[in-house]
Amino acid sequence: MSNPFTIAFGKKPGKFVSRPIQTNNIIEDFTSETPASYVYMLTGVRGSGKTVMMTSIAREFSSMKDWVVLELNPARDLLEGLAARLYDQKQLQHLFLEAKINLTSFGIGVSIEGALPVADIEVAVSRMLKALDKHNKRVLITIDEVTNTENMRIFVSAFQIFLRQDLPVFLLMTGLYENIYELQNVDNLTFLYRAPKVFLEPLNYSAIRSAYQKVFDIDNEEAGHMADIVKGYPFAFQLLGYLYWNERSYNSLEDIMPEFDQYLSEYVYEKIWSEMSATDHEVAYAIASENNIAIKDLRQKIENMSSEKLSVYRERLKRKGILDTATYGHLSFLLPRFDEFVKNMR
């Protein structure tokens, strides 16, 4: 049997812990007669499982009758990409031909007798969606790792128009908190503020322990120790399982930790660190110096930082998925062994 765990980002592993409540909430909303929202944004720190969750939801919709699921590349022209992907669905082409939608101006499809080529891509997509609506089709669009680019701004603006036209289109996006925050602050895209943002919390401890126990046929104590190490962080869950599967000749889990730390650093933490500001770093250094540090002690360790300023950075790092603020008056890192990484960055 091959290793059921993977350290490849975005690929659905053979063994993973699902998020049934958040997943079902999105599916139930999109499939209801009167959806509360037509847009959901999945956000969390790198390695938190955003892409895997989006892919899992997309597969659910792909199995449903009358749903069309399309993944778009955010680095390309998204409206042209949407038109091309829609036309590429063999079961839909006859609907566009019946509606006499001539897309040859964009290098899509064939010329239609008696129908002039559509000159504007937004108009073309709107007409295609109207053709699908007549046949009770719904379209789910997924976009991974969105950023505030011209392509995204144009697409989201058009999507807002499609919603006002009551077209059957839904959008599921993933992105880092700061990238989603920047995109939704564009003047004409503030409707994204109202779109639900699903912050991916740590995975369920019991589910992780059970998964390790079943895969490795180990006792509850050993599986619990492994669950304690990964702290609910999806990439760490995969990584520790991956290493444990390949290196079971080790005498103990502690023997795996150097390699575990190296993978975390090179695959995730160095990138997270590079995206943090100098002040973020100072806050992180102070937190790393003492496990579960009291906020009053943290302020003493960081010179000239007011409580108001600290609150700003506390909330910022929490939104990024780095800080655990669950214990009142105290702060610690949400990410496993991130304190060790931070200490080594001095």
Q: Which key phrases capture this entry?
A:
346 residues, single chain, 3 domains, Rossmann fold
What does this structure look like?
α6 (150-164) links the parallel β3 (138-143) and β4 (169-175). With 346 residues, the chain is an alpha/beta fold. The protein folds into three domains: 20-199, 3-Layer(aba) Sandwich (Rossmann fold), CATH 3.40.50; 205-267, no CATH class; 276-346, Orthogonal Bundle (Arc Repressor Mutant, subunit A). The chain has a five-stranded parallel β-sheet with strand order 2-3-4-1-5, with helices on both faces. It contains 15 helices and eight strands.
The CATH topology name of the largest domain reads Rossmann fold
Largest sheet: 5 strands, parallel
The named CATH superfamily of the largest domain: P-loop containing nucleotide triphosphate hydrolases
The name of the CATH architecture of the largest domain is 3-Layer(aba) Sandwich
